[in-house]
Each structure stands twice: as structure tokens, then as C-alpha cells.
Write a structure and sequence with these properties.
0% strand, 413 residues, Growth Hormone, Chain: A, single chain, 16 helices, mainly alpha
Length: 413
């Protein structure tokens, strides 16, 4: 039964609280990984195709690591796997910074290691959230989560961006040295996050079998949504950096632009997570998709500095709003289906990740195809618009999914 007032910190278990604090600390790493690694590649190669190759390597490493993680969860403590995922993000950056030149082989290696990092981090994080929260607390959990990464998404780009461009030397050698110092700090933060996380206690999956190829029809709706979500993820992480470096050419401007309007959005997300209920998720999800479309629309229409700023503003609102709705929808469906089919919860998390991978791969290939057959400008201008338009279909699919889920719950009663 839903409470009439908002959810509070006391509604979370101790393990859920530790997981939130861990994610808060690690949130200081994610903007560096998401933004400045891509800008580092652009600065040293001036080739958006190499940025996309790096991204494809990451997205190839993630689902493979999800699969391996399924086997490891039956043998190794989840705390060790989750911590390893965080630490590997630092290792990947070290590999990148140690390259004498931005070669295709080096990019692929660094990308695969980062993919392994994300694979271990996100697969175990999804499982941990599923097992330490309830459907009632998940809106607030993701509200807090998005608040944390939105705030760090403001502060970190400003601090790192201006640190990179305000040193004694603006030559590549001087800026690259400062990138290396940022990498050292990233490593220290991942170690701190790992230490904090080990203060919690978490259970392993109840069933060892996790690999299935046939699922309930309602789960197919979730996979359709994952395809569309993955389309945007194919290059949405690197698109801001490529656009900023194209129109502004400076990591300092990149950092400042990330902060515009984001703090206001962060507090909106916190309140939305605290006071919204499961019945509001479809409406929240729809607003997020419309904001994403508007971000892509203004970028495609204007394709100048003003268009990029509008793109960033709408994107900063769209991404956390989508997370507040999408992940609770996914986890609630896993709760229902795992009980209905008697399966390991991780089996659904793994299958969902492969759906995301298909979407990411198609999204990245869309960009590369437009760049190859047209130009980089055409790719940066229109790939997002194509994907933003297609993503609106998710509103219809989500509505169908929630209806079928309710029917299944009634059948189980």
C-alpha cells in the first residue's frame, strides 16, 4: 500500500544506504569517464571516428562481462566483483594515458577494459539495487541516485575542465600531463568507494542457473524498450564531448556548459523521486523521452554553439528523468517474472543487457555510416535526431508493458 507522503532515508535498509553512499562517491568518477576520455581522444587525434571506435569497444566489452559475471556470482562474493568493476575504470584510463599515440589497437584495448569495468559495475549494481530495495522505495532510490550523479555531473566537469586548460602550458604535452593527474585522482576515488561498499552485506543469487533464451511474452516488451534505449546510448556518452570540441574547442568550455541548468534539474529529480509513486512512472518516462527528442531537434535544427547549449540543457533534464522511470519499471517486472517463472533475477538483467547492446551497436553504426557516406557534420547533426524520433515509440511500448504486467500480477494472486 502506498504512503500518502514522500519516502525518507529511513525507508531504506542499511545495505541499501551503503550502496547509495558508494554510488555517490563513485559518481565523481563517471563524468571523467563519460566526457573527458572522449575529449582526450579528440584532442590527440581530432578524429570523431576514433571516439566511436573506443565507444564500440566499450559496448562490446559490457555484455560479455555481464555473461561472465553470471558465472562468477555463483563463486565469488558480489562485493569483490562490484569493487573490481569500479577499480578497472581507473586501469582503463591508465592504459589510455600511457599510449604514445592514439592508435586503433590501443583504443580497442582501453575500450575493452572500460567495457569490463562497466560490465562488472552495472551488472552487479543492478542486481544489488533489485535485492536491497522494494518497488515502493525505487522511485526515491533513483531520485537520490540521479541527484548525486547530476550534481557531480556539474561539479566535476567544471573542476576538471578548468584544471585541464588553466595550467602553465596549453600545448598538448602540458594538457596531457594534467589528464594523467586526473587519472591518479580517479584511481584514489575508486579505492575509497570500494572500501565504503565493503561495509555492507549482500546475498548471492538464490538460483545458480542464469542463462535462458526463452522468456515470458511481457519480457519481450522490456527488450524492445532496451533496443530503443540502447540506440541513444550508442554515442550519447561521447556526443556532448564531440559537439563541444567541434564548436568550442576547449575542455574548460565543455565543463562549464555541462553545469548550465543541471543543479536545478538535480533538485527536481530529488523531489520527483521522493514524492512520485509507481503509478506516475509512465508519465515521467514520457516527459523524459520528449525532452530527449527536443535536445536532438534543436541540435539538428541549429547545429551551432546555441544549438549545442540547448542540446545540453534538454539532455541534462532528459537523462535523469528517464532513469527515474525506466529502471523501476524494469526492476518491478523482474520481481514479478522471477517469482512467476521461478528464475534467478540475474537472468533477466543479463538478457536486458544484450538488448541494450544491440541498440548501442546499431546507434553507433548509424553515426559511423552517416560519417562515412556523408560527413562528420551530417553524423553529429542528424544521427541524434533520427534516434530521438525513434525513441518516442518507447512510450507506446511502456504503456503496453505496464498493462500486461498488471494482468500477470492478477493471474498470480
Amino acid at each position: 500500500m502506498e504512503k500518502s507522503i514522500g519516502i525518507g532515508w529511513g525507508d531504506f535498509s542499511r545495505s541499501a544506504k551503503i550502496l547509495i553512499i558508494t554510488n555517490l562517491v563513485y559518481a565523481f568518477v563517471l563524468p571523467v569517464v563519460d566526457i573527458f576520455v572522449a575529449s582526450y581522444i579528440m584532442r590527440n587525434s581530432n578524429d570523431p571516428a576514433k571516439v566511436m571506435l573506443y565507444q564500440l569497444a566499450i559496448y562490446s566489452g559490457i555484455p560479455l562481462t555481464f555473461l561472465v559475471n553470471g558465472y562468477l556470482l555463483n563463486r565469488i562474493d558480489v562485493k569483490k566483483l562490484f569493487s573490481l568493476g569500479m577499480l578497472l575504470s581507473g586501469v582503463s584510463m591508465v592504459v589510455m594515458m600511457s599510449l604514445d599515440e592514439i592508435s586503433y589497437l590501443g583504443l580497442t584495448l582501453a575500450g575493452l577494459i572500460m567495457g569490463m569495468s562497466f560490465g562488472l559495475y552495472w551488472s552487479n549494481r543492478d542486481y544489488l539495487v533489485l535485492t536491497t530495495t522494494t518497488d515502493f522505495t525505487r522511485n526515491f532510490y533513483y531520485g537520490l541516485d540521479t541527484f548525486c550523479y547530476t550534481v557531480t555531473g556539474v561539479l566535476v566537469p567544471i573542476m576538471v575542465g578548468w584544471y585541464l586548460v588553466n595550467g602553465d602550458s596549453l600545448a598538448n604535452e602540458g594538457v596531457n600531463l594534467r589528464y594523467q593527474m586526473v587519472t591518479v585522482v580517479v584511481f584514489a576515488i575508486t579505492i575509497l568507494a570500494s572500501v565504503i561498499f565493503h561495509m555492507g552485506s549482500y546475498e548471492k543469487p538464490k538460483s545458480e542457473k542464469f542463462l535462458y533464451f526463452k522468456f515470458h511474452p511481457v519480457w519481450k516488451k522490456m527488450i524492445q524498450m532496451s533496443y530503443l534505449k540502447g540506440l541513444a546510448q550508442g554515442f550519447i556518452v561521447t556526443a556532448p564531448a564531440m559537439l563541444m570540441m567541434t564548436f568550442f574547442g576547449s575542455e574548460g568550455t565543455l565543463g562549464t556548459a555541462q553545469s548550465v541548468g543541471a543543479l536545478i534539474a538535480a533538485f527536481i529529480m530529488l523531489l520527483l523521486g521522493k514524492y512520485s509513486k509507481p503509478k506516475h512512472r509512465l508519465a515521467i518516462f514520457s516527459v523524459g523521452l520528449v525532452c530527449f527528442f527536443l535536445a536532438a531537434f534543436f541540435n539538428g535544427l541549429l547545429f551551432n554553439a546555441t544549438g549545442v547549449i540547448l542540446f545540453m540543457l534538454f539532455l541534462l533534464i532528459a537523462r535523469p528523468i528517464l532513469d527515474i522511470a525506466y529502471f523501476p519499471i524494469q526492476l518491478k517486472l523482474i520481481d514479478v517474472l522471477a517469482k512467476f517463472e521461478g528464475r534467478n533475477e540475474f537472468s533477466y538483467i543479463l538478457n536486458h543487457e544484450f538488448g541494450l547492446y544491440v541498440g548501442r551497436f546499431i546507434g553507433a553504426l548509424t553515426f559511423l555510416a552517416l560519417a562515412y557516406f556523408g560527413s562528420t557534420e551530417i553524423a553529429l547533426r542528424y544521427a541524434l535526431l533520427i534516434i530521438g524520433t525513434l525513441q518516442l515509440i518507447s512510450i507506446i511500448i511502456a504503456k503496453q508493458l505496464l498493462k500486461k504486467q498488471k494482468e500477470l500480477e492478477h493471474e498470480m494472486e
